[in-house]
Amino acid sequence: MSENLAKARAAARADQPAPTWRLIITDSESPTGLAPVCTGERSDALHMIDDYPGGPQRDEDGVYDCCPWPQIETYSTVWAAYLVELLNADAGEEASAQAPTATPDFFQPGHTYTEPDGTTDWRFRCDSITTHPETGERTALGWRHFRGEWSEYAYGEDNFEIHQIADAISQEGGAR
Ligand SMILES: [Zn+2]
After folding, report:
1. Considering the entire predicted model, what is its pTM?
2. How far apart are CA 64 and CA 150, in angstroms?
3. N or C end of the chain: smaller count of CB under 10 Å?
4. How confident is the model at residue 175 (pLDDT cuts 50, 70, 90)?
5. What is the per-residue pLDDT across 32-90, written as a single tens digit (0 to 9) for each?
6. C-alpha 9 to ligand 1 mean position (Å)
7. In what helix (H) or strand (E) does residue 95 lie, and over which residues does it extend?
8. DSSP of 127-163, one letter per residue?
């Protein structure tokens, strides 16, 4: 993704958190505009066409006082449709991209950590996490391998950050 897109998106999100977009009909008969889906308080009442032939029907494309901005008129059905799809797809991609990239901020049980550059035989198999009864600070309990021997070991939050900064830890797939 381009840097400019990321910046523009972040600015828009600050203005309004990821709305879902819809096609709207403003001054013509055709859906040539777009706007965020209406979630206004009076949306249900205002969007209802009571005398619609065959019974009351919700006006999905209409624009009323309750409808959020920005409302964008493109004067083109294809461009309006394209922009709606683009904006909704972008919000979806953003949501799915965020979840897997969330990096753990501490050792994870079931993982063994190593030094990827192989300068030492250091390894740490994290078995569980325990927290300080008062401060809640985490301690990782497990086994450390160093100089050819395994021994029981505990690492605190400071230890993990040091390794993170040095980029000295790689994660071997563990049981999930
Ligand atoms: Zn509305």
Report:
1. 0.53
2. 69
3. C
4. very low
5. 999 999 988 888 888 998 888 888 888 889 999 999 999 999 999 999 999 999 999 98
6. 24
7. helix 77-101
8. EEEEE-TTT--EEEEEEEEETTEEEEEEEEHHHHHHH
**Ligand 1 center from residue 54 Cα (angstroms):** 22
Neighbouring C-alpha atoms within 13 Å toward the C-beta of 63? 22
In the chain, how many H helices and how many E strands?
4, 10
Ligand 1 centroid from CA 42, angstroms: 7
Give just the sign of the alpha carbon dihedral 35, 40, 43, 45: negative
In this structure, what token pair is assigned to residue 83? 């922009």
Question: How far, in Å, from the CA of 114 to the mean position of ligand 1?
Answer: 56
